[in-house]
Amino acid sequence: KQWYQRRVRVIENRPKDPINFLSQFFRSYVEEASPIIKAQRLLCLTHHSRPAFNDNVISAYKLLRDKGLTGKTHNELLKGLCNGLPPVVTERLLEKLACKDMDAVPHLLFYNNVLTCLVCHDYKKHSELLYRELGTLSDRGVCEALLQLLSDHLESSSKYELSSNQVGRAILSAKSYGQQFISSEEFVVCALDTFVDVLQTPP
After folding, report:
1. In the prediction, which pLDDT does 2 show?
2. Helix/strand/coil percent split, the chain, to 5
């Protein structure tokens, strides 16, 4: 029965890279990994936009709950999910999402915080792509105009994808700073800071 359920999960997730997916999936069961590592792998099996993600969150939550889910465990999981983000962004994000070590962690809080970390990775990729598309236009004035546009867009709609028309208008209205440029790393960190700033956290 257990192996049948695992095969069903593989089918439900329908990964874009089946070979890598199968490797990660079966490694999470075969290796002597900690519950936190196993939960992290479950949560990264498929993109959060896919229906199977909700089932993966439930499985990860049950796995950690059965092992004694506390605020400390929750925080360690989120830290692992933040791997790949700039350290300064990870620190700020965890400051907003972290629980006290001995706090209980309800499922809805667990789901929202896990999703926030994964969406932050998407936002990082979008920011990197946006910077690359600027090419030789990546001077400070253009970058600052786009960062302000990203901030306004996030605050008004909670979405981070910009249309080509929005980008074009931002470029045309940008203040010129001559030959002053912003690096890709600086642009991405500033964009992610905006993402963290607009996060709504429970009181």
Report:
1. 42
2. 70, 0, 30
